[in-house]
Amino acid sequence: MFISQRGIITYAYGASYYLEMAKSLARSLRLHSPNVPRAIVTDNENDQDLLEFYDYVINIKYEYGYNVKQKLHIYDYSPFKYTLSLDSDCIAVRDINFIFDDFKGRSFSVAGNVYLQAGDKDKFIDVDDTLKRFNLTKLPRFNGGLYYFEKNDTAKAFFETALELARDWKKLGISEFRGDGPNDERILGLAMMLHNQSMFEDHGQMMRTPIGLRGSFNIDAITGQSTFQKYNQVVSPALVHFACVWGEHPVYHREVSKLKNLDKGSANQVKSNIFSAIKYKFGYQIAFLRYIAKRVPKNSKYIQARVKKLLIELPELIKAKYRIEPVRSK
Question: Does residue 304 carry a pLDDT above 80?
Answer without folding.
Answer: no
